[in-house]
Amino acid sequence: MQKAWRLFKKGLLWLFILQFVYIIFCKWINPPITLTQTASLLQGNGLHRDYISLDEMSPNIKLAVMASEDQLFPDHNGFDIKAIKKAMNYNKKHATKVRGASTISQQVAKNVFLWQGKSLFRKGLEVYFTFMIEKVWSKKRILEMYLNVAEMGKGIFGVQAASKAYFNKDAKNLTRAEAAMIAASLPNPKVYTVKPLSSYVGNRYNEIIRQMNNLDGDEDIEALIK
Fold it and tell me: Which domain does 185 fall in, by range?
């Protein structure tokens, strides 16, 4: 029994070391493949992606995802506490409509290191990895990773693949409207499609453009999108 316990503790220690090394690895190198991308392949949806640097992305798409997903991204430490409290209160009153409050950092933690799902165990791991990448990576690296690994359509991962699939252009050339359409699809890109244009994306992207206009000139955001 003691031998089994020692082996178990050694196994946990090695898991901790390996995951920490992988976090450091991903600070500079993009992940070879993620669990979500693997699931896409196994489900027959394919894997279309093309990792690019933040400098190769249009400022419009950087601004669009912050306007849509996480307007406090430059300022928080990985968690938007006010948004979490609002979501919890909303979900108590609306049992059939669940509202999330995940920041861009939390979504990166989930997309790079974990799997899709809503279990408490997975959520606990998400909190840990969010804390770690906020400590080890820069905000620019987190944003760059988000825009490279986020699913943006069935089998389409990252903004470069999405730009090519929907607008036949590189991500660096996305207009404000095109960027807003991609950002509008992010809550559920398999349902809220850019091509063909779903009613949700068609209704939502103009609101995202308005939010982008409101964020124009914010010094912290400008520092991330340049």
Answer: 29-225
Note the pLDDT of residue 40: 95
How many CB atoms within 10 Å of residue 37?
Answer: 22
Residue 24 lies in a domain: no
Mean pLDDT of the chain: 90
- Does position 98 have pLDDT exceeding 70, yes or no? no
CB-based burial, 73-106: b 16+ in 10 Å, e otherwise: bbebebbbeebeeebeeeeeeeeeeeeebbbbbb
For residue 212, give both structure tokens: 């982008």
pTM, to two decimals: 0.90
The pLDDT of 186-213, averaged and rounded, is 95
Q: Does residue 78 belong to any structural domain of this protein? A: yes
* Contacts with 56 (C-beta within 8 Å, 6 or more apart), sequence order: 160, 170, 171, 172
CATH code of the domain in which 149 resides? 1.10.3810.10
Domains held by the chain: number = 1
